[in-house]
Amino acid sequence: MKIGVISDIHGDFLSLRTVFTELEKLDISLVLVLGDVLYHGPRNPIPEGYNPMGVAELINNAPFNFIFVKGNCDADVDQLMIKYPMLQEFALVHIEEATLLLTHGDRIEDFENFMEKYKGVKALLTGHTHIPVVEENKFGLHINPGSISLPKGSSKKSFAILDIEKDKFLVEFKEIV
């Protein structure tokens, strides 16, 4: 099953629209959103396509199913704009024969030690750093799709396509141009 994984939208309507167009072409039906949806945050610049109301409308009318987790820039008032539950800090998702743990990642200092607490979880999906990552440790896979709006380090705007078959994972990063 192919799944879209996005994080750190930060109100960027133009980038999100581009991502949704790509996900539709790939016939994706489920999108995991790892936080920081509407607001750009006090330490980030305002993204070029900043339009939080447009982002909410785009999400609410998209042809996908969504699972959200709360980011450090998400607030209770944001839930008034998004029709999907978006304020839980963690979500456990069972797909095929794999259990995924979703969280924004802003409160995790050591991913390997964090994953040790969650036996049976095959992959931890986080955002927050705005840098795409796929790393395996003895407890499972850590995946960060990067940011679709405000990349950091030498990364580009990105999201991920996660292909799960039984408990095998294939992660493909897609850059937004």
UniProtKB/TrEMBL annotation:
<dbReference type="GO" id="GO:0016787">
    <property type="term" value="F:hydrolase activity"/>
</dbReference>
<feature type="domain" description="Calcineurin-like phosphoesterase">
    <location>
        <begin position="1"/>
        <end position="166"/>
    </location>
</feature>
<dbReference type="InterPro" id="IPR024654">
    <property type="entry name" value="Calcineurin-like_PHP_lpxH"/>
</dbReference>
<protein>
    <recommendedName>
        <fullName>Phosphoesterase</fullName>
        <ecNumber>3.1.4.-</ecNumber>
    </recommendedName>
</protein>
<keyword id="KW-0479">Metal-binding</keyword>
<dbReference type="Pfam" id="PF12850">
    <property type="entry name" value="Metallophos_2"/>
</dbReference>
<dbReference type="InterPro" id="IPR041802">
    <property type="entry name" value="MPP_YfcE"/>
</dbReference>
<dbReference type="InterPro" id="IPR029052">
    <property type="entry name" value="Metallo-depent_PP-like"/>
</dbReference>
<comment type="similarity">
    <text>Belongs to the metallophosphoesterase superfamily. YfcE family.</text>
</comment>
<dbReference type="InterPro" id="IPR000979">
    <property type="entry name" value="Phosphodiesterase_MJ0936/Vps29"/>
</dbReference>
<dbReference type="GO" id="GO:0046872">
    <property type="term" value="F:metal ion binding"/>
</dbReference>
